[in-house]
């Protein structure tokens, strides 16, 4: 897939304020500081499309970006720093769960995992929730250039092994590096195929 245009469309702080559901959508979510904004900028080839911040939890709303006027890339708030109340399901806010459960044009969700770390409970809980809700997703292990290859291999393997406790079979996953620009082509190809199969 060649990215010819990538434009910010809207921010929403309630489900009702979301962009009109007219195009296939792919959502990106992960713990704060997982490198989500940098990955979005890499995928779209636009350095400043998504705001990159050194302060975790800057994304407080859902941000919609139109890609090639053909599909929407959706930047979801990081669930590690989301404000949680007793009534909120799992470890992320109700607004995000409403979007994931009820958005009719949501075609797939990418869950970003920091490859520098061993499996984190909050990531595993979120993936388990997606499986329980029967929502299609793929994993993206980020920051692979920040560790030695054998460390990345070990951490990815440990995460997949942990998933076997609540899931059958291995999930689709990608490994990305902003510095080396690896994984971009594979993720975009996956999206292109998913759109073709969805139509």
How would you characterize this protein structure?
The protein is built from five helices and seven strands, in the order ββαββαβαβαβα. By secondary structure, it is α/β, with parallel strands linked by helices. It has a single domain, classed as 3-Layer(aba) Sandwich (Rossmann fold). The two termini are 16 Å apart. About 6% of the residues have low confidence.
| CATH-assigned fold name | Rossmann fold
For the secondary structure, the number of strands is 7
Mean pLDDT: 87
| Broad CATH class | Alpha Beta
**In terms of structural class, how would the helical and strand content be classed?**
alpha/beta
- Rg calc: 16 Å
How would you spell out the order of helices and strands?
EEHEEHEHEHEH
* Fourth CATH level, the homologous superfamily: P-loop containing nucleotide triphosphate hydrolases
CATH architecture: 3-Layer(aba) Sandwich
Oligomeric composition of the shown chains: single chain
Summarize the structure.
The chain is an alpha/beta fold. It has a single domain, classed as P-loop containing nucleotide triphosphate hydrolases (Rossmann fold). It contains five helices and seven strands, in the order ββαββαβαβαβα.
List the helices and strands and how they pair.
Layout: E1 6-12, E2 25-30, H1 36-44, E3 62-67, E4 71-75, H2 94-102, E5 106-114, H3 121-132, E6 137-142, H4 149-163, E7 173-175, H5 184-198
Parallel strand pairs: 2-4, 2-5, 5-6, 6-7
Antiparallel strand pairs: 1-3, 3-4
